[in-house]
Design goal:
alpha/beta, Aspartate Aminotransferase, domain 1, three-stranded antiparallel β-sheet, binds pyridoxal-5'-phosphate
Amino acid sequence: MQFYDQARWKDDEGEAYEPLLSEKKSREEPIEDAPLPDDLTRDSLELPDLSEPELARHYTRLSQMNYGVEQGPFPLGSCTMKYNPKFTEDVAALEAGAVHPDRREETVQGTLAMLAGLQDYLGRIGGMDAVTLQPPAGAAGEYTGLLIARAYHDHNDDDRSEVIIPDTAHGTNFASAALAGFDVVELPSGDDGRVDSEALNAAVGDDTAALMLTNPNTLGLFEREISEIADIVHEAGGLLYYDGANLNALLGRARPGDMGFDIMHYNVHKTFATPHGGGGPGAGPVGVVETLEPFLPDPHVREADGDYELYEPEHSIGKVHGFQGNWLVLVKAYAYIARLGDPGLADASAKAVLNANYLASRIDYEIPFEPFHHEFVASAGDQDAGDAAKRMLDYGVHPPTTKWPEIVAEALMTEPTEIENRETLDQLAAAFEAVAEEADETLAAAPHRTTARRIDQATAARSPRLSWQALDQE
Ligand SMILES: *Cc1c(COP(=O)(O)O)cnc(C)c1O
């Protein structure tokens, strides 16, 4: 087994330390001979005046004090932390300098063709008739999809105020529905971890605007009654929303559109191997069935007589992001899907499911709900899942997602993805096994080998300081 000591750049006291850029000593003599006229320059930005090697070392050191998918496995369930193949960066770099978002349509036909091409790819993958690429994240996609649902019902003079969401759903579903102005109706899962059609029947009614669902759900279980569920919602006049943040179990095998879903979002920064984490930028395209196409965000790309153009859909909900969304992320997703092709996508989902099942077969933690697909939720049992997770870092692997979904006590939600080979899966299994046998005290004090040990997660999430200006203001 391989062990791990994270690099630790330190201060005099031995505390982890890498100075902020603003704390680094600036060049003795600032560059005076900027080639720009005075009226086009400003000094209010207070940028540190550093050389390229100083910058490169700063960011490399920070990366050495962190854990990433380029160091080892990253089985963070639901998040689908795939390795981002480098060729997609090359493709994005080709395009990067070339287009200004305000250029006239006739001068950017290639760009529009690529956007239309990605709309088509995603539409085919999800079984949707039209796709907007504008939303910048999964949660933004949910919000966009729900605005479309609202606009559709309003257009039909149908006043519907409720969105039904299973208790196992991702937290963003509840937040997006509330932000879009709906009342949230939480649906308790059945004993088998799936939607209970009796409970659903009791929840739907004249107020139902939509049901939001993930399939396979966050326990990795396929909703076998999906056709019946779709009928119940549709008969009540509601729409079916598919949370497709993570499509790794379905790629090339099954399509939400064929299951009866009307709206879905995709996370290109999960399923389609574009960078993920650190707050983005990502992209959360939204697909819809034909009847909802007139409500898509403005502008939308379409092909007309061999040319590509931007247009405003008839009952558009308006803009949800600047221009066409996060263009370079979309280029990377396009490149990834084009390189894999249909057989490659189907192969990815096969390996994702195989890897999750192989890993699960090698660990002793109980897995209460089966059969799962691309991810499984183990229970840490008497251990605290958060502590067990921290300890895994000491074995050189990233921990799984913890304590969610709540229907499994001390949940360890694990998704190895298709990128890992058997040797790495064995390494992951060995880490799980080692941690499963350790005493609570050892776990509670972990991690020992990382640069930062226990951080104050709540404060980091609630009051993030994302710039040195924010730090300065304290
Ligand atoms: C990640 C995720 C989301 C939210 O996506 P973001 O891009 O993080 O906003 C929604 N639903 C599920 C199931 C997810 O895993």
